[in-house]
Amino acid sequence: ESIEIINTIIDDLVSKGLPANRIVLGGFSQGGALAIAVALKYPKQLAGVCVLSGWCLKNLDVPTLIKSSENRKTPFLVCHGDADTTVFPGCGKLTKKLLEDAGTPVEFHSYPNLEHGGSPEEMDHVAAFLKRVVP
User: Fold this and answer.
1) Residues 61-106: pLDDT tens digits?
2) Are 76 and 107 in contact, with CB atoms under 8 Å apart?
3) Which of 13, 40, 109, 135 is the most exposed place for a label (fewest CB within 10 A)?
4) Does the annotation mark 84 as catalytic?
């Protein structure tokens, strides 16, 4: 249901004249997991995806899904704190690996001593990513 809601929001923006390739999805924690799922299932190419302390959903067969995804070449920014005890750092590393192994471009950053939250350095990486991917 959440994927359908986000798809409807994107479709509404596109119907109002915003090209899909100027839309970046992003989310923190569970929102990051949702952003991945939406991006890989959305029928038009998006500008990019930011995944902050997120993960690939277990029931999401990323390698198979990416093969037919319009967003298989869409850049992903994956950021994770190395002291996160809520969503373990290995989740961020696995997300990076799954996306890269499928040929999807990934920029990955790990932040020393960052728990389940954000940091100024992470926000700088997000800002630079947005400047780079939004046409």
Assistant:
1) 999 999 999 999 999 999 999 999 999 999 999 999 999 999 999 9
2) yes
3) 135
4) yes
pTM: 0.96
Per the annotation, the verdict on 109 as an active-site residue is no
Active-site residue identified among 53, 69, 80, 84: 84
* Annotated catalytic residue, options 11, 82, 110, 116: 116
Output the 3-class SS for the chain.
CHHHHHHHHHHHHHHCCCCHHHCEEEEECHHHHHHHHHHHHCCCCCCEEEEECCCCCCCCCHHHHHHHCCCCCCCEEEEEECCCCCCCHHHHHHHHHHHHHCCCCEEEEEECCCCCCCCHHHHHHHHHHHHHHCC
Nearest to 52 by CA among 7, 113, 106, 116: 116
Pairing status of strand 24-28 against strand 76-81: unpaired
Tell me the two tokens of residue 79: 């950021």
Tell me if residue 116 is catalytic. Answer: yes
Joined tokens for residue 125: 């990486």
